[in-house]
Amino acid sequence: MNLLGEILTHNKDFVEKKEYESYQSSKFPNKHVLILSCMDTRLVELLPKAMNISNGDAKILKTAGALVSHPFGSIMRSILVGVYELEVDEIYVVGHHDCGMASVKAEQTLEKVKHRGISQETLDTLQYSGVDFNRFFRGFDSVEDSVRHSVSTIGNHPLMPDSVPVHGLVMDPETGKLNLVVDGYKK
């Protein structure tokens, strides 16, 4: 059985046994927080436990490197929807040490893109259309600086109310220890 089949078989059993009942919650976060974190698999369960976040407590967005790379992209839109439509009163940007985005380089990623079957012609067309792959596939050198940048992008957004503190933290993915980078209360 392939992975999709396994997921669907498990889901059927999950629903029939009503295992979903223990996860039922409101669409509004109990703690009125939104967490932007990295999509790293080590953080899936560790991050909420380390922050004392239970099911229903927070809106959690995940993106590579906990980056807000465009002030009017989908991540920023989701954050603003959280604030204006879903009762979010505080935002936490949580990066982590040993992040895969720290090693992302456009040249290497483009080689992998080609290896997976995307033609040079397609890449050339995108580049001629204005896509800057060096910017699009840009990683970072310092997770702390990256967190500061995302905090700044969110906190200084023209649609973000001053009343919403934006905090920045960096987590150790081995222990769950959080280090404060930006205290959003001290704006």
TrEMBL record:
UniProt remark on cofactor binding: Binds 1 zinc ion per subunit.
EC number assigned by the record: 4.2.1.1
Pfam family, one: Pro_CA
Source superkingdom: Bacteria
InterPro entries: Carbonic_anhydrase, Carbonic_anhydrase_sf
UniProt keyword Metal-binding, yes or no: yes
GO MF annotation: an example: carbonate dehydratase activity
Family: Belongs to the beta-class carbonic anhydrase family.
Protein's recorded name: carbonic anhydrase
The species this protein was found in: Virgibacillus chiguensis
